[in-house]
Design goal:
- It is found in: Cell membrane; Endomembrane system.
- The protein is an all-alpha fold and 261 residues long.
- The chain has 12 helices and no strands.
- α3 packs antiparallel against α10, α4 runs parallel beside α6 and α5 runs antiparallel to α6.
- It is globular.
- The relative contact order is 0.13.
């Protein structure tokens, strides 16, 4: 089972391997690309931010399902609560980088996750809120510990080390949709995967990758390269396991019905 509370060894291994690749990467080529993109830095950052916010807004569909059901039973608060802790850390790291687009995006994402968490709690029966509060406590300890560490660490080291921590947690969060991989393979259908969200994630990852190159920030670069790999895996599922043809035919038939029916 995918465990967000243990160290993601796979992410650490990937980060180390990609780190070696990027150390061998031609600095001259990256500098040339960064100089070419520099005039468009704000545009790239703002568009990437909008796509990222679009990803977070996908939680509205889950909240609406909870509202229609009248209860949060059968749903997980992990995406929302852990999202709050992650966006707090991302906001802190964005402030370290002094990047306005990153600060703005992290602030909006945090506000959205707080609303989702409040909605989830509202529809959780009073007798079953212990799991929710345990998750909140774990997230608070994780985020609080990281922020405490950032406050006491050597200023010359904190940016890199804190960036590594945020990168590992972000990759864990991005990998959450892969929890449905077993279900997709078992049903041989990608119908349950949110294609618009995955496409938005892919576009945002490409733009944040370019933004990271402009900033010469290897944590952002490595993070988004791995994120693109995860997106590629998810997109490939739509080719390998397309939605049932019967579903598509039913939709077309529905559109062809006379208006009077």
């Amino acid at each position: 089972m995918y465990n967000l509370w243990s160290v993601d060894l796979w992410s650490v291994i990937c980060l180390r391997r990609f780190g070696k690749v990027f150390t061998k990467f031609s600095l001259g080529s990256m500098d040339s690309l960064a100089r070419a993109l520099l005039p468009y830095r704000d545009v790239i950052g703002n568009v990437a931010g909008m796509l990222t916010i679009g990803q977070f807004l996908s939680g509205c569909f889950t909240c609406n399902k909870i509202r229609l059901k009248g209860s949060s039973e059968g749903f997980s608060a992990l995406q929302f609560v852990f999202g709050c802790g992650l966006t707090i850390l991302q906001l802190k790291y964005s402030q370290m980088l002094r990047s306005a687009p990153l600060i703005r995006t992290s602030s909006y994402a945090l506000a959205i996750c707080l609303v989702y968490s409040a909605c989830f709690l509202f529809y959780t029966p009073s007798g079953k809120r212990n799991d929710f509060w345990k998750l909140v406590m774990r997230t608070t300890l994780l985020a609080g510990g990281a922020l405490l560490y950032a406050g006491f660490e050597n200023p010359g080291l904190v940016k890199d080390r804190f960036g590594l921590l945020v990168t590992i947690l972000t990759l864990s969060y991005i990998g959450l949709p892969l929890l449905k991989l077993r279900e997709v393979i078992r049903n041989k259908s990608s119908e349950g995967l949110p294609l618009p969200v995955i496409l938005a994630s892919t576009g945002a990852s490409v733009l944040w990758l370019l933004y990271g190159i402009i900033l010469h920030n290897y944590f952002i670069i490595v993070q988004k390269v791995i994120a693109l790999g995860l997106c590629a895996v998810q997109l490939s599922l739509f080719v390998i396991y397309p939605a049932p043809a019967a579903t598509a035919a039913a939709v077309r038939a529905q559109h062809k019905k006379p208006k009077g029916e």
